[in-house]
Amino acid sequence: MSSVRVLVETRKGAFIIEADGKRSNWTISGPHFGGWEMYHLKGSLADPNRIYASQSSSWFGQTMQRSSDGGRTWETVGNKFVYDGVPGTHQWYDGTPHPWEFKRVWHLEPSLTDPATVYAGVEDAALFRSSDAGHTWTELAGLRGHGTGPKWQPGAGGMCLHTILLDPTNPQRMYIAISAAGAFRSDDGGANWKPINQGLHSQFLPDPTAEVGHCVHRIAMSRARPNVLFMQKHWDVLRSDNSGDSWQEVSGNLPTDFGFVIDVHAHEPDTIYVIPIKSESEHYPPDGKLRVYRSRSGGNEWEPLTKGLPQENCYVNVLRDAMAVDSLDSCGVYFGTTGGQVYASADAGDSWTAIARDLPAVLSVEVQTLP
Amino acid sequence: MIRVVLPAHLRTLARSASEVTIEVDGPVTQRSIIDALEARYPPLHGTVRDYNTGQRRPFVRFFACGEDLSHESPEAPLPQAVATGQEPFLIVGAIAGGWC
User: Fold this and answer.
1) ipTM for the complex?
2) CA neighbours within 13 Å on the CB side: how many for A364?
3) In terms of pTM, does the model score above 0.90?
4) Residue B100 located in a structural domain
5) Which site among A109, A117, A319, A331 is 20 to 30 Å from A54 CA-CA?
6) Which among A9, A12, A33, A60 is the top mutation candidate for probing chain B, defined by the most B β-carbons within 10 Å of its own β-carbon?
7) Distance of CA A44 to the CA centre of its chain
8) pLDDT of amino acid B97
9) Looking at the 3D structure of chain B, how many domains does it have?
10) Domain A37-302 = CATH 2.60.40.10
11) What are phi and psi of A345, to 5 degrees?
12) Which residues of chain B make contact with A37, given a CB cutoff of 8 A?
């Protein structure tokens, strides 16, 4: 019988929550790396027992871990992230030039086909790749080098490259997103990049429709239809039907279109999920009600999903990498909160159960569907 | 033989006891101690000193013999009591580090 392994990363360690395909009885192991900030864990599709982990602390910087047995044991691997050439400057919060400084790894994306290849999105924003299972890392410098870097600036969480999407139908095509620079696409395996932000509108920019500078919080794609992308921007939910060449707003009837997460149903490419957050100055759900919103039409028409979720006095946040879906027949949806709860739905969002309640603040959630 | 006391996070990373011993060739300085420590415990690479700058991380401090040596030159000789193993060299996480 299939099973699922939920990888939960928190401010104070990682937790692994597992269940069989019924997804009704859950076991939790952890904390793994107790006391460390675990920004992201992700397993390889090509070898599900291969998991990469980003481990960091404000005292001791960035370290990297790798498991070859599904998270039971771990090996420390390479943590030398050195920018290619002279890093140059980006904008600081006040618009003045500020030198690029490596801080941490936000997101890990294993190759879809090779368990030894993995990409790392880092702060200050850059993309690195390892082809030796995490021992050494090389910057894909074409991203920072294409010329707009001096216009990038940090969002509230830092200037982070937080999203990496690999096109399952085209090994040369990949997407990344940066707060606050925007979304970018490569069509040559990461050597060269172009901004794909046409249609984005951001009031905090002097030119609200600028080519770069947008605070993209997350982008998502359906593996079954990878030319269609969905985006949760600082404000606005958007959709692109042409691999990011242009975007249209699909916020529709959402109570607020500020938020962090967005994800796509594993089998229905037009079914998408967001969690509206009240505003940039109030990082909690509107009216104290934790509601996932689902659109079955690829945006614009949204329905609140509330069954099993707190509908009063709830003031948690759900961060950008803290939602994931499994690929079982009835798609499972998972998300974690800054209050330490992890919610799971085994029925595509119709109902929810807390599979963990009292963890440290959740930074990210990933799910592996195991045979 | 040099005695080095590690903070909890680095102990777990190195899979070591609180106090470890290392051998240092030549002058006993902050730099030679950290070089030897990283050679003996590779997972500690980059955790005490920033990879890119080679500088002590801002939330890391070095104590020995009841003194704060954090701001001494990395090349300055450490007290004889450290060099002879009579006193340990302490790597300490600053009180301000970490998340609540």
Assistant:
1) 0.91
2) 21
3) yes
4) no
5) A331
6) A60
7) 16
8) 66
9) 1
10) no
11) -125, 125
12) 99
